Every structure is written in structure tokens, then in C-alpha cells.
Amino acid sequence: MTNRNKTEVYIYGSKYTISGTESEEYILKLALHVDKKMRKFAEANNALSSGMISVLAAINIADDYFKTLDKLQNITKNQHIETELMEKEYKQKVEELTLQIQKFKSDAVTMEEATTSQTYELEVIKNEFENKEKKLKQQIELLKIESGYKDEAIANQLEELENEHNQNKDELVDQIKRLKDENTSKEKAMTELYQKMEQLKSEYKQMEELYQEEYTQLKDEYKKLEELMLK
């Protein structure tokens, strides 16, 4: 059973005993408020009776109450709207970040596939070069054996083959260098893509935490407002 407190108060010169579950300090505060309202109307018009003063004070207090209630309801409504807008903005931002992350993932996969393809192409070129070099060396050695360096025509052919070998070698070296440079550039681009992805994930997480914090704060404020309205 709830304990009820009895508090003696004075309102507009009269003594009253108020019984309630609220604290004595709170009841005295209420009585003082009513007393001030009644004295305000009494000072404004000395001809008013005590009953009339009480009615005017009650109407004035009721007016204050309903105006305060309207303000609280407006604040609550505004907070609902603000929460909905925040939630809509949050969802939109999440969708945008998700699309960006998906795009970066797709770009990274495409870049990785291109790098793998070029690596394979590089290996094929190296194998072709090695096979051609081996074949040319075999031809040179064969010509050396057959000619014994005596036949001028064979010696010229030998020189042409050596020149062709050197030219092909230089071209292949340049091509291999170019492919390696392209691979290095693409690997760097892939690294930047992954870094951007991590940055977007971090921003996504921070925004989610910020929204959750603000949303929790709004819920707490809304709960407090509801408690005030119930009083």
C-alpha cells in the first residue's frame, strides 16, 4: 500500500491539509504557485470575492497547463519528424555507401582479372622468347659447324641471324618491361581501391554509430516528454 503524506499549507490566507503520495516539498511548491495566482488577481481587482479569485486562478492555471501541454505535444511531434528525417537520410547514405563499396569491389575484381591475364601473357611471351632464342642458338651453332667460318655467304647469314636474335631480344625485353610497368601500375590502383573500400567501410561504421547515438538520445528525450505529459 502506498504511503500518503499529509502536508499543511496556506493558500490566500487559509490553512489546508493536503494528503497525497508526493513529497512535502512538492506539495508546498504547488500551494505556493496557487497562492501567487490568487494574490495576483486580488491585487488586480479588490472587488473580487474569494470564490471568484479562486475560479480565475484555477482557469489561469488550467490555461497554463493546456498551453504547456500543446508545446510538449508540438515538441514531441517535431522530434518524431526529425527522427524520421534522420532515419531516411541514414538509410539513403547507407545505400549510397553500399553501392560505392560494391562498385569498388567490382572494379577491384576486374583489375585483378586484367592483372592475372597480363601476367599470363607475360609468361607466354617469355616462353616464346626463350624458345626462339634457343632455336636461333641451335641454328647458329649448326651453321658454325657446317661452314667452319669459311663460307662468306654462311658467315653473312650467321651475322643476320645474330642481328635478328639481338633485335628480337631487345623488342621482347622492352615488351616485358612494359607489361611489368603496367602490372605495377594496376597493382598500385588495386591497392588504392582496397584502401578506398576500407575508408568507406570506416565511414559507414562511424555514421551508423553516430545515428544510433542520436537516435537513442531522441528516444530518451521523447520518453522524458511523455513522462512530463503524463504528470
Describe this structure in words.
The chain is mainly α. The protein contains 3 helices and 2 strands, in the order ββααα. It has helices spanning 24-44, 50-147, 152-230, and strands spanning 5-11, 14-20. The chain has a two-stranded antiparallel sheet with strand order 1-2. Helix 1 (24-44) crosses helix 2 (50-147) and helix 2 (50-147) packs antiparallel against helix 3. The longest helix has 98 residues, at 50-147. The chain is rod-shaped and about 145 Å long. The mean pLDDT is 82.
User: How widely separated are the two ends?
Assistant: 21 Å
Number of strands: 2
Radius of gyration: 46 Å
Spatially, the strands of the biggest sheet line up as 1-2
Low-confidence stretches: none
Shape from CA axes?
rod-shaped
Largest sheet: 2 strands, antiparallel
Subunit structure: Homodimer. Interacts with FtsZ.
GO biological process, one term: division septum assembly
Main location: cytoplasm
Organism: Ruminiclostridium cellulolyticum (strain ATCC 35319 / DSM 5812 / JCM 6584 / H10) (Clostridium cellulolyticum)
Compact overview of the structure:
86% of the residues lie in helices and 6% in strands. With 231 residues, it is mainly alpha-helical.
Defining key terms:
231 residues, two-stranded antiparallel ribbon, mainly alpha, 2 strands
Write the layout of secondary structure elements.
Elements: E1 5-11, E2 14-20, H1 24-44, H2 50-147, H3 152-230
Antiparallel strand pairs: 1-2
Helix pairs in contact: 1-2, 2-3
